[in-house]
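Let us work through a complete example step by step.
Step 1: write down the sequence.
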Amino acid sequence: MKLALASLASLALLAAGCGGSGETTPKEVVLVTHDSFAVSKPVKAAFERETGLQLRILQGGDAGEALNRALLTKGDPQGDVFFGVDNNLLSRALDEGLFEPYKPAGLDTVPAQYVLDPEHRVTPVDHGDVCLNTDTGWFAKHGLPAPRTLGELTAPSYRGLLVVENPATSTPGLAFMLATVARYGESGWTGYWRKLRANRVLVVDGWEAAYTAEFSGASGSKGKRPIVVSYATSPAAEVIFASKPLAHAPTAVVADSCFKQVELAGILKGARNGKGARKLIDFMLTERFQADVPGSMFVLPVRVGTPLPDAFTKYAVSPAHPLELPPADIGANRDRWIEEWTRVVLR
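Step 2: predict the structure and record it as tokens.
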């Protein structure tokens, strides 16, 4: 969804005056979310000015951790709206009855492919693709062609070059594991991971540890691995946050590896400020908020016709046919797949 994106997002939120705890008042609406959520200060101010509400944002870990916390407080939530459940975790949230149905204003501007719940318990806010990223400079320096497909990663020439996130603790890690299920099917995906393990894949807990600490292509990184699981927008982020202007992105996306991801928001059951929650969901689909999404969170807006920053137009990748699995299939098999992955890769 990239230069230390999670950290940058957190800094953006601190600058916007977000965070804190306590009970909701009628003049306050509380958004519960993950550490990588961000909104610019002017857009946050616009919401508060237009609604007369104070927006307070409670962040906690990655999307999986934040969702776990929301489920533990189901019925007596920490806030009013939850943002950050994606298509890979959606069935869990819906099966647990976490959200109140609400069909927001502006949903008619969103393509049907992103509307994943016909009962409107969740609203799509952004989308993107989890993809392998490569350090183009490293491969040029070593005279080795960068991988073009998932299958090529098992070749001896890429031994010890790949770092991935654990699907049990990381949403991009989960998406990449699901990409291998989508590509190789039930009969082949674990065999593929056995080959990656034999090829010395490195597994870390989360995106930041993978991208900013282990990946050689991240700006300022001392990492030594030139292939990482990140996002289709990461090359654009590298250009935007470069210390000096760049003519070309220093990283590239392996389009064959990309897995579709949609992030959604929903009104938490038991919300203290249901009216304010509905106003916040509505605002997330407005032109103003949607135009802020790329620059704040480095993902793509779901609203049709939303303009993109120039760096996104030039350097972000939008695969025509990303890998994907039906949310129902993910929901029925996700936990089993994660257990199998853990057994094959870590034990």
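Step 3: interpret the result. The radius of gyration is 20 Å.
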